[in-house]
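Annotated sample (chain length 327).
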Amino acid sequence: MSLLHLSPQAEPLLPSPPPQLQTIRSGSWRRWLWAVVALWILSGIYIVAADEQAVVTRFGRIVDDRVRPGIHYSLPWPLDSVWKLKVQQLQRQVLGEVALEQPAVQFLTGDQNIIRMRVAVQYSVSTPAKYLFTAGDVHRVVAASVEAQMSRRVAAHAVDAVLTTEKAAIQEQVREAAQRLIDTYDVGVVLAGVNIESLTPPAETRDAFNDVASARADAARVVNEAQGYSNDIVPRARGEAQQMLEAAQAYRMTKINGAQGDAARFTQVAAEYAKASDVNGRRLYAETMEQVLPRIKKLVIDSRGNLDLTILRRGEASPESLRGQSK
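Output written by the structure step:
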């Protein structure tokens, strides 16, 4: 076997490109390099939507904690990083899903009853930088804060109050207290509302709880029926009482007016009587006797024996006959 040896003076197997081609290739690589650099610089342009805010960090340090909506520029990656958040969007967290991985949480009431609650929390981002970098899991912080305050408020009320009259007040109290607690953690969150979506007893006491609820419903029904009966009877009785009062008032005014009229008439008669008391006295006496003895014939004779003929009625004896009889 023979070996092929090439001398240093031997020509290479592949011919070298001409100088013009080497110049073209060198210029092409430069253009590509400048294009890449230009694209990398332009990649720092970013847009923040109308419902968003952004946070810009440079090598992990915050350089702009609140970027408003619009078109902005930052140093390209990996120098700067842009974090966008929908600050106007309400986020919803159901109490128990994060910490306990179940749809409801148990609470102990003030009268030693256990109830299961499904509590929904709505919140929004107030400070994007704090929301992003203060806590590792803001959802867990919010859920734990609301759960702690809910435990305190429920423990201060009886189960009946939690189920009925105090439910709305407890929700508002928990929201305010949980907001104060979250502010101490400085996670940049504002609570919009705390809503108790469901209240159920534990499975072990569900039957007894349902019996109590049924009894409470029956009591409410009886109270409503009694209230309805009262609403029907009381106005009617008040109307009858008012009618009786008005009738009594009318009777009173009638009697007063009649008495006043009688008194006025008596006063007038007394005045006229005083003008001729002798004559009026005799006339009143004669009229009274006429009323007392209507069927008896009566003759009026004065103290001197003279006969008063003016009282004879028609159809009775004539004055002449009477004079004859009197003789």
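Annotation: Helices lie at 19-42, 128-133, 138-155, 159-163, 167-185, 206-275, 277-292, 319-326.
Annotation: The chain has four domains: 26-85, 91-200, 206-275, 284-326.
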